[in-house]
Design a protein that fits this description.
Shape: elongated
Largest sheet: 3 strands, antiparallel
Radius of gyration: 19 Å
Number of domains: 2
CATH architecture of the largest domain: Orthogonal Bundle
Order of helices and strands: HEHHEEHHH
CATH superfamily of the largest domain: Winged helix-like DNA-binding domain superfamily/Winged helix DNA-binding domain
CATH topology of the largest domain: Arc Repressor Mutant, subunit A
CATH class of the largest domain: Mainly Alpha
Strand order of the largest sheet: 1-3-2
Distance between the termini: 52 Å
Helix content: 55-70%
Oligomer: single chain
Strand content: 5-15%
Length: about 140
C-alpha cells in the first residue's frame, strides 16, 4: 500500500490520470464532500462502479490531492488539498514543454489553427493579449 504523504501538498511528479482528473473535477466542484457525494455527482457524467471511484479517491489522497476533513459523521469527508488552477497550470506547462518545446507561441498558434474559434472568442483573446501587454509595460 502506498505511503500517505504529509501535508506538504501533492508530489509534483505525481501526475493525474484522465480518470483521476475527472474525479478531482467533481471534488473541486463539490468542495467538502463524502465519497458518496462524489459517486452520485460522477454518475451524471458516466457510469462507473462506486468501488472504482473510491479507489481513485484513495489514490488522490495518497498523492496529496485530497485530504480528510475532521467530522463527527460516520463516513469520512474529503476536501481538495490543492487548487484546480495550480493543477491546470502544471499540466499545461508539462504539455507545452513536451509537445511544443516549451514555446507558448507554438502552442497558441497550434490551437488557433486547429480550433473553430468564433469572432467573439477572438475578440476576447485580443482583450487578454492587450491586458497582458499593458501589465508588462507597468
Amino acid at each position: 500500500m502506498p505511503k500517505r504523504r504529509s501535508n506538504a501538498g501533492p508530489d509534483p511528479k505525481s501526475e493525474l490520470s484522465r480518470l483521476e482528473m475527472e474525479v478531482m473535477d467533481e471534488v473541486w466542484r463539490l468542495g467538502e464532500c463524502s465519497s458518496n457525494d462524489v459517486i452520485e455527482a460522477f454518475s451524471k457524467r458516466r457510469p462507473l462502479a462506486p468501488t472504482t471511484i473510491r479507489t481513485v479517491l484513495g489514490k488522490l489522497r495518497s498523492k496529496g490531492y485530497v485530504e480528510p476533513v475532521p467530522t463527527i459523521e460516520r463516513g469520512m469527508r474529503l476536501k481538495p488539498a490543492v487548487a484546480r488552477d495550480s493543477v491546470v497550470r502544471r499540466t499545461l506547462d508539462r504539455l507545452r514543454e513536451v509537445l511544443f518545446g516549451g514555446s507558448p507561441r507554438q502552442a497558441i498558434a497550434y490551437l488557433l489553427k486547429s480550433e473553430d474559434i468564433s469572432e467573439a472568442e477572438l475578440d476576447e483573446l485580443e482583450r487578454l493579449i492587450e491586458t497582458r501587454r499593458n501589465r508588462r509595460e507597468k
